[in-house]
Amino acid sequence: MMDMPSLGLVYHGFAFLSMFLVSWWAYRKNSLKFFSQNGWAKYNILQFFLLTWGIMVWAVVPTILSRHSLSLLFASDENLVSSIQLLLVFGLSALAFLAGRSQSKKLDVNSGNLRTNPSLVVILPYFIFRFLFLISYEIWFRGYFLDDLTSMFSIPVAIGINVLFYAILHILGGQKEALGSILFGIILCLMVVYFGNVWPAIIIHLSLSFGYEASFFARTLKTGLEK
Length: 227
Known about the structure:
By secondary structure, this protein is mainly α. The chain has helices at residues 5-28, 44-65, 83-104, 120-152, 155-170, 175-195, 199-226, and strands at 35-36, 39-40.
């Protein structure tokens, strides 16, 4: 990420550890996720702080400090995308969307914990911050972090380390989520290595999240209109 690899590793350690600690704090306060089977986040301000912190340490700060151009993150004239590659991204994004929607359907929108929805004043900013957070997530995990790992290790080892840290961060969401993140993380890493850019990982991750969250809010809205 930086001209001195050692400084890059120090920043990666700080970015990961600080984000894990903020996530752990939010988990302890029942505010790790905006909504889950346990209900809505108890403290919305803590949820927004988590998202903001991720945007800062995973995208804003490393982009300022990075020696790379934006070609690492997005396609350039030197990395023309073929129709087959676009089809691959579209196909994986569609599968991610369906997987997210399938997981969303497991949430009971009629449960007492989810019956009272937050106001639109809270929901709309959440979607904006969540969108930016996921982009930042991939910019760091599959962008700067993976790029520095591949400069020091073989690609299989670099992907293994990347996915290990990715799974550790998801442990707070439960064992099942952590295990699922391993396969998802491997796919995203392979896509970035194949394309030479991080944008395919961003699109696929956004598709998974959109399938999960859009499906949930669509069902809560429908439930509210039927009452």
